[in-house]
């Protein structure tokens, strides 16, 4: 079965000067323009293509890889707006449409938004939606405390960053636990801190406890070795300098270098540390 908005491996039925006619199975014939073919193809050969509908509504293939396929999230920029909606750049010649009723908030020309691509049931055209809540799981979250999860930064709230948890639920990473810059659309790992009774999820970006300190210690050692055995961040250094270098708090940094000192690996001074 071939699905619009996804990458498929199709077989060539016929070649012409204009391009290749591919067997799209249930979609019928899929046309691959000659400008998309950079090597010799013959009838019976296979080719990997992304399938979408052209301006006339015909199934068309491209060897280019879009920024997202149907069912995926991506940060896309608005290129133009008309009476139909916002047209967004997703890496192909034909822009993808975000209809007005799928915009939350209302989009502005030139701005980028986190969207999910979906297949419109009526038109069978690929569209984008920033109203991604409708695509999330309706099941109650059952994550374990400190379970590692995949995150996508979705926006900001008064309390912290709103994140998609495993692309299935909404969570929050509180500002006072973040020690590095985050941006909408960024993908990163996190850890479940708590699942509240109302289903809301609190998320951490760093491992808690000694696991976090041990990981930081390894990063500090690597930095020391790369810097010739000296790092100008010590026991009395500015917290902002530590945050900028290691994306962590001064308290965590002091725990990590304290552990390295106890292991006999480093010497600690007021504004620097040194390998022994």
From TrEMBL:
InterPro entries: CvfB_fam (IPR014464), CvfB_S1_st (IPR039566), CvfB_WH (IPR040764), NA-bd_OB-fold (IPR012340), WH-like_DNA-bd_sf (IPR036388). It comes from the Bacteria. Pfam families: S1_2 (PF13509), WHD_CvfB (PF17783). Residues 218-275 form the Conserved virulence factor B-like winged helix domain. Gene3D superfamilies: Nucleic acid-binding proteins, Winged helix-like DNA-binding domain superfamily/Winged helix DNA-binding domain. This is S1-like domain-containing RNA-binding protein. Belongs to the CvfB family. Residues 4-64 form the Conserved virulence factor B first S1 domain. Transmembrane segments: none annotated. It comes from Pseudoalteromonas shioyasakiensis. The lineage of its organism: Bacteria, Pseudomonadati, Pseudomonadota, Gammaproteobacteria, Alteromonadales.
């Amino acid at each position: 079965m071939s699905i619009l908005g996804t990458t498929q491996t199709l077989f060539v039925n016929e070649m012409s000067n204009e391009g290749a006619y591919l067997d799209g199975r249930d979609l019928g014939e899929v046309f691959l323009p000659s400008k998309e073919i950079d090597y010799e193809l013959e009838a019976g050969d296979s080719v990997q293509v992304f399938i979408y509908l052209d301006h006339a509504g015909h199934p068309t293939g491209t060897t280019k890889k879009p920024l997202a396929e149907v069912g995926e999230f991506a940060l896309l920029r608005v290129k133009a707006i008309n009476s139909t909606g916002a047209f967004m750049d997703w890496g192909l010649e034909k822009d993808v449409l975000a209809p007005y009723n799928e915009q939350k908030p209302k989009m502005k020309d030139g701005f980028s938004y986190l969207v999910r691509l979906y297949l419109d049931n009526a038109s069978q055209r690929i569209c984008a939606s920033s109203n991604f809540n409708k695509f999330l799981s309706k099941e109650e979250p059952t994550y374990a405390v400190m379970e590692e999860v995949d995150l996508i930064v979705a926006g900001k709230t008064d309390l912290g960053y709103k994140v998609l948890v495993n692309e299935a639920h909404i969570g929050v990473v509180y500002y006072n636990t973040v020690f590095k810059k985050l941006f909408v659309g960024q993908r990163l790992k996190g850890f479940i801190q708590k699942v509240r009774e109302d289903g809301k999820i609190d998320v951490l970006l760093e491992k808690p406890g000694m696991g976090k300190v041990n990981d930081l210690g390894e990063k500090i050692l690597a930095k020391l070795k790369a810097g010739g055995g000296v790092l100008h961040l010590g026991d009395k250094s500015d917290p902002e300098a530590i945050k900028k270098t290691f994306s962590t708090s001064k308290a965590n940094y002091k725990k990590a270098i304290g552990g390295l000192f106890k292991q006999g690996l480093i010497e600690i001074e007021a504004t620097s540390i040194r390998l022994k």
